[in-house]
Structures are given as C-alpha cells and as structure tokens.
C-alpha cells in the first residue's frame, strides 16, 4: 500500500530537489507577505513529501510563532537546533517562545547566556533586551547591566547640534 508521501509525490510530481526548493521558496514568499496560513500549508506538504532540512523546521517554527502557536513553534525550533545547534536566530526564537510561555528554565537561561555573547550585534542586543524584559537571572556585561550605553563616549562624539562637513554645511 502506498503511503501518503508516495501519493503526494506521484500526484504533484515533486520528487527532485528543484521542485522541493520551489516549495520552500513559495512558503518563504507567502511568509514574507504576511500570509502565514498559506506558508504553513506549503511547509506541511513539504514535511509530508520529503525529509525536512533544518531550515524547514526554522521556517515552520517562525510561521507558528507569528500566528501565536508558541508551543508548536518551540517544538520546531528544538528540532531545528537538534539538527543544527549553531543557528543563533533559531535559538533566539526558541528563547522568546520559552519566555512567552512562562518557562524560565535551564534551557532559556542557557540560550540567553549563549546569545548575549554572540558575535552578531543585533542578536546580542535583542537577547540582552529579553534578559532585562523578563528579568532573567543572568549577569549582563557591565556596560548594559549598569544602564550605560554601548554607543560612542562623549569624547568620541562630535560636538554641536547637527553633523557638519568640513566647510560647515549641515548633512
């Protein structure tokens, strides 16, 4: 007896990587357009007809996150990180799901600790904001925990009300 996967593959003809890539692209395009339910349908079919890649789990997790299905999203982020534990954006989504669900546990603290040390400034700053917003028991770097800006110091900032060129015109 044929499986549902075999039936879908035979009826849609999507058996090669090009067609599967087109499905991933379609899901992503619908996601970007804010059509999360349609993106989810494409991803659900993709999961039925092929072995999902880590990015498939991440994308489905983000779609589920965006429609407020945090528990299901968390499960997809866990699966993606099981396959590729290096994905900091996925880890950031997982952290946010854990915090939204009120699950300040060892995994949330571990993720936050990794993310606030990220080489990516955007990820690092977002993780620090989550740590402060949810009052996680993590020590932040000194400049953040004391409320100081991580931006330029007064000595590094030019004086005056507006930036000017050498000839005095306002930028």
Produce the secondary structure layout.
Blueprint (H helix, E strand, L loop, with lengths): L3 H9 L4 H16 L3 H14 L4 H13 L3 H14 L4 H13 L5 H10 L5 H13 L8 H4 L26
Helix pairs in contact: 2-3, 3-4, 4-5, 5-6, 6-7, 6-8
Q: How would you characterize the overall build of this protein?
A:
The protein is built from nine helices and no strands. The chain is mostly helical. Helix 3 packs antiparallel against helix 4 and helix 5 runs antiparallel to helix 6 (88-100). The model is unreliable at 143-171 (pLDDT under 50).
Features:
171 residues; mainly alpha; 62% helix
Briefly characterize the structure.
The protein has 171 residues and is mainly alpha-helical.
In sequence order, what are the helices and strands, one letter per element?
A: HHHHHHHHH
**Dominant shape:** elongated
> Gyration radius, to the nearest Å?
22 Å
Arithmetic mean pLDDT:
80
Count all strands and give the number. Answer: 0
Q: What fraction strand?
A: under 5%
For the largest beta-sheet, the strand count, sense and barrel status come to: none
Q: Give the helix level as a range of percent.
A: 55-70%
CA-to-CA gap between the ends?
72 Å
Helix/strand structural class: mainly alpha
Return residue spans where pLDDT drops below 50 for at least 5 consecutive residues. Answer: 143-171
Determine the number of helices (DSSP H or I, runs of at least 4 residues): 9
